């Protein structure tokens, strides 16, 4: 009996091996490849099926009229406002500077951008010399890019030289004042108590005495540390001037951005030569394109506490991520997914943003540029959006590895390229609110460019209604976005000057 059992073992092993090899072919949906790797049966990376299948089927067959196309792509009419950020008084530097101030900025590119504007304003308020801000290593993307990697320092200093004293580094006698110095103990020259949205007077009362005693003061943290209200008009204008004039990207970023724009507008994306694409553009082969900031990374998905169709594996993975990053402190997790969607708190998935674009009138021949650092779920998650918009491009599809080498692994530089391209597109749309959304909404409003702001509450309610037909969905989307395509909104009390540039950065034409 034992001999017979042993004789059958090789045959059983062979059958088992064949079954393992054939299993992905028998059940392909359970073994969807992602970036060349096969996930496990319970992996969060298993591609979820389309969540809105009925709407998707209709969207794929939908045809857009010529009139709809003309209306959608038409530029914004003049709205009676123009850029207006010249100083209200004669620019002048103080005869004697109080000392040097340093700021340490965390967050992503656009949060750092706001911090830079506020740092210049604070230096002006207290009459100090600003040291080029130090950008902290991003904890999510692990990006160590410096100010000089992203922004043109010489342009920054020269643009502001008549109003604020700015230096690239501290004098030798203050060389001890470094990030490492402040990380190893409590220091008298470090200010940790700056309130969020502090009034200008707070800096006069709390920073100047330190400057008078030590000659240098380091403010950290420095995120959202200057109020938007009750600030002198000249300080508001200065913040606007920093944001819209002084902060210019480095040549390596602008060159890559121009190459992407040229290829998006050119006749064929197959041509990789910048010069050849520019020739095509000059000859009239000038296509319009829309930039979509997808903003659907794992950080965003986890913090929203929403469900995205990935089942139990996805829920467990996002819950674990929340615990590691925020120790589980995500208040929205107490609501159900349906409640969160009804409140407009769930970021739109690639599938949902695709349905929105079709309902708004974008055809499947639209040239779409995808501005995103990393999409949660990878290509498997984007596939539905690509099915709706087959001419979707991104940095990888439009450039060679050699061209991308300057930004490879650097999220801030990558975001800067996307920002640059976004400012040149006919239309910009962000799938969910956030710092990049707010920064571009403001910058494009300043230049009177069309920007579509998704109505998150409306869309959340529409997508919860799984029985809605296409005609009803399309009508609701169009009615809910008539006044969300770049119409200028005046800043209200406590709102950010970096989201609403009028009236502080603009004046009536």
From TrEMBL:
GO annotation, biological process: fucose metabolic process
Pfam assignment, any one: O-FucT
Keyword Transmembrane helix part of the UniProt annotation: yes
Family per similarity comment: Belongs to the glycosyltransferase GT106 family.
Origin: domain of life: Eukaryota
Localization per Swiss-Prot or TrEMBL: Membrane
Pathway: Glycan metabolism
Gene Ontology molecular function: any one: glycosyltransferase activity
Membrane-crossing segments per the record: none
Record GO cellular component, one term: membrane
Record PANTHER family: O-FUCOSYLTRANSFERASE 2-RELATED, O-FUCOSYLTRANSFERASE FAMILY PROTEIN
Name of the molecule in the record: O-fucosyltransferase family protein
